[in-house]
Amino acid sequence: MPKQRPSPETLLKRVQAEEHHQMHGKLKIYLGAAPGVGKTYAMLEEALIKRKQGIDVIVGVVESHGRQEIESLLSNLEILPRQNLEYRGQKLTEFDLDAALKRHPSIILIDEMAHTNAPNLRHGKRWQDIKELLDRGIDVYTTLNVQHIDSLNYAVQQILHIEVKETVPDFMLERGDIIELIDLPPEDLLKRLQEGKIYIPEQASLAVEHFFRKGNLSALRELALRITAERVEAQVLSYRQDLGIKHVWPTKEKLLVCVSTKYKSTRLIRTTRRMASRLKAEWLAVYVDTPELRISEEKRNGAIRNLRLAERLGAATTILIGADVGKEIMDFAREHNVTRIIIGKEIRARWRDIFFGSLADKIIRQSGEIDVYLITNEFGEIKTPAPTQAKKIPWSIYGFSILIVTAATLLDYFFSYYLHGSIAMLYLIAVTIVASFGEFGPAFFASILSILAFRFCFIAPYYCFSMKDIPSNLNLLFLFIMTQVISYLTIISRRQIKATHLAEHHTHALYMLSRQLASTRGVDNLLATAVHYIAELSDSEVIALLFENNALSIRAKSGTVAILNEKEQSIAQWVYDLGQIAGLGTDTLPLSDSIYVPLITSRKSIGILKIRPTQPKRLFTPEQMHLIESCINQIALAIEVDRSHNTENSPQTKSLP
User: Fold this and answer.
1) What CATH number is given for 254-375 in this structure?
2) For 20-242, CATH number?
3) What Å distances lie between residue 603 and 154, 360, 421, 640, 647, CA to CA?
4) What is the pTM of this model?
5) What per-residue confidence (pLDDT) applies to 377?
């Protein structure tokens, strides 16, 4: 499949990224599974190559730990003097950030990104020094061990049975322009340790007992490889999007299940989960919310429940908005490099497939290099779901159709009397007006009514429905086809416009929230801003609770409810402990009158938001829920950044090697 021109949004992102790179320094991270794999050595070798090319390179801070090969490389580079400090009677030497900014080299080497600075310095962490250097246009080379990545903190603790307190937030890893994996098999690393090339003998024996075990090193190596693979996958995906490449590159298996509002989507979701488990593959669940004017609340609630099930089983869920379901699914699949699509196949009468088409058939025709799996109902499966709310018939639009066709007929009488000829195009205008309401039924009814009125009043023999005049009947047939085409295009255009408006509303809401959060400081102020914003956005009463002093306490609220009863407190605690959504519209405590959403940072849950719709028992639509979750993710990120900036850390008396 040939390359397609990138979308305007992609081009805009590319321009913004280029402007960002021009204004800020570039970050290169040498990532390793453990100390001693050669990160610092590789960084210094690269620095020497850059220096020979005439680039201004200096060493900001590099720890040699007495290794001769490191000191030999350092002797060939300019080293920035450190600043001397005294803390509790101990003399400390730290990286001199102000001296580095004054020197302003092209590239500066900063070892041990996760290091904790001494008190009374401008930043508590070395990664904050690196961030300021980047913001001031200086390129930085740094080293990092995988156990210091914030999001992996819990996994590392499970492996090593040690709490790693020096961590680097994930957004610094995401900011890295280049991540170079420095890999060494555990056997070779243990050999280097025994030869004294990592620590002195006393430290080496202690490290072997607590850290340098073959199993530990293998597990950390796997984490480092996974982090690097995810980074490379993101770069490949960005490259394909930038160049508008639509065909799939099968670098690894990725599954996509198409969720609908129907009950049987649960079988599709569980089948996809089993397939993904066997293939050790990532899987996604997507629901396309078509902007129909009268979709029932029961259907919307069904979509919400299906997506919640997919999330619990480990899928990354997405809600798309568009009038053409098949096109939205295929565009999403190619954009995310999906290799297999799982979709339900409804067994129904053949004439319905012929006249109305099938989503499964449409996806198969457009699938190209993507494999498509059809899952049908098993024999004997119950095909009658729980009672649903019947879709209301738009009788008012049918009545309007009669009125406007009557008006077109009277107007045609007027023109035929004075111009001695009828104007059939008036009926096309009438059908188009009815179709603008977005309903296929009334548009079809207006089309049939227009044909009958035109035949009865303006084609000889008049005031009867004779079918003997073949040319006139052919004209009526063509008129009917024209009215159907026009009504169909009008309805599709209206729905597409509504889908565009919903997407714009989503983007605008997130943009406005991000602006408000960016200009707000302090956790209480951030929560107050977020609570009032979400309350107005969702027409709900919102309460924000943070976990403090071993309990959840209210920190901000919008509405009349000021306290939580015992039952609500227990639900909130459950949501905080498990980090899962519960309450109204979910499978957990669905009879509650509110929905409870956790505030999750990159490390853990920090609190919850209780959202109660002002209309009792009203479930949020999929697009509303998706928007609320996006806003909550931004709130959690803003709180995490605010806390990281305001936290003062003391130096570690004993840190992990």
Assistant:
1) 3.40.50.620
2) 3.40.50.300
3) 8, 40, 77, 9, 15
4) 0.48
5) 52
